[in-house]
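Two records follow; treat each independently.
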Amino acid sequence: GGRAAHESCQSSIQKNEEFILQLRQENKFLHKQLAEAKAGDEEILRRAFQDRGSEKHAFRDMSARDAMEKLDWMVLSKKKRLNAMKHTTQAYQQRLDELKMGRNLS
């Protein structure tokens, strides 16, 4: 009774210690991978913004994915603005053409 229970507990303790060691090794490996990924993101962002000092600071603490999402949003926003400006310019040009034609008719 008592001896078998003691041996069972010792066996469980040993298995748990081995499992803890395995988890520590996996954790160390994952930390290393994360550090390498962050370093890679920093390098990507450094290269992308090397000639754009003021913008570099806005993206400094972001991952490459977050920076890309923000840049995509900024590009989309600027495209919308550009399209609105093109529309306004076309409307002004059309009005100008109408005025010119009106002047030529009289």
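The next record belongs to a different protein.
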Amino acid sequence: MSTDNDLEEKKVSFLKRFAAEPCVRQTYLYSFTGGLVVGSLSFMFTSHVRKSIARGFGMFGATMGVYWIYCRYNYFKEQEQLKKISEILASKALELGSQPNDPIISEFKK
């Protein structure tokens, strides 16, 4: 019994960590939707099941790759901007007379 619970907890913790990664949810949603739309439209116009499935999966993979790169690039760019802003705020607070070991300054420097 305990091994089943441990295995279940490991699965849940993996899924939570995976879903907590930035851009994962949006990437899968856009990829799934794009693949479904392309596959459905392809089937509607050609009535070839195999070709439609292949096109749908191809669109899924292409959308996933392209959107993942785009989203991660924007995420890291935003993180750099936030880091610069926090450094500017920390230096401004030091200029205005805060002590270097002040908890507010240490929060900005993270």
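Discussion point: The first helix runs from residue 2 to 20. How would you locate this feature using only the token line?
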